[in-house]
User: Fold this.
Amino acid sequence: MHFRFTTAGESHGKALVAIIEGVPAGLEIDIEVVNRELWRRQQGYGRGGRMKIESDKAEILSGVRHGRTIGSPIALTIENLDFVHWQDVMSAKPLERPLDNPRTLTRPRPGHADLAGGQKYQTRDLRDILERASARETAARVACGAVAKQLLGAFGLEIRSHVIKLGDVQIVPLAREWTEITAIPADSRLNCADETAEQEMIKAIDEAKADGDTLGGIFEVVAHGVPIGLGAHTSWEDKLDARIARAIMSIHAVKAVELGTGVANAAKRGSEVHDEIVLAPDGGFRRSTNNAGGLEGGITNGEEIRVRGYMKPISTLRKRLMSADIITKEASEAAFERSDITAVPAAGVIGETMLAVVLANEIREKFGGDSMDEMLRNYEGYVSAISKY
Assistant:
């Protein structure tokens, strides 16, 4: 059985929809935990006006009865409150009269999916592309990730993120302990473990805003309490590090992914990089360091999984870049849509979601079971066997 999800919905459509498959029966689901994750996604200094309009809350339509999963697909929906202003523009029905304000997009934004998508799908109104390519879709992902996190929590796994770089400001050192990450206040303006660096990041955001520009950065996602043996070395498709990299790369504006200290490791000698094996007090095996980010040979080794997403600056700029109109074929400034100055903290929350979904799938593949009771029995038997190795 696989844990998987799919989403539907446009940025200014009526709602976002998600369907989750592979959740075992008997998992307790707290909808307030889901809504808390949706709230976290909307936070962060430098967010745009859309965050003031939406107050994301998920509604469970199926798959949960009396607070517990029943083994069937879970359907979720998140209402787009802004749809009230876009009902004609985003109507599913043919319109009988021309729109007073059609909001047609014909000047593609450099760095966005507008032009490539318009060419691929042969549309002359790039709103057909923009609406689905928008990062608004990630709200539905986060709702799915909140369910995945509740499944992982039953097996002792936790996942958190933090911002390690924004623009040209980064925390020093980059590596932070789990306790430091979990100690970041819920109302932190940038979800950064270094208060001094955070203040410098805020200044950089203010400067970019004044210039009509945007900023990217780096977020790190950490999974704590991961068991040994998820993933496999036997096939490229089963290597867990590859699955994680794909999931993080799927996040809007992420252009590079790093596991452990992989980028710095490329410039070092092997003796400086590889994590030495030591005996733990309980007789098990541990690593003295975690440069590998918790994965060796595509398999979890019992250390924390650490993955970093490198997010480019958002491609919707008030300081408009040059483009061309796809109808008139004349040079023109790119279109502007309401946007953020930066969304790196939110991208970290989405990164938590994608890592949670990948690990939930690994847990399902490894321990099977139609119910939580069966999965937990299988898990406990496996952990017992590992402890004797």
Observations:
- The mean pLDDT is 95.
- The CA atoms of residues 226 and 302 lie 6 Å apart.
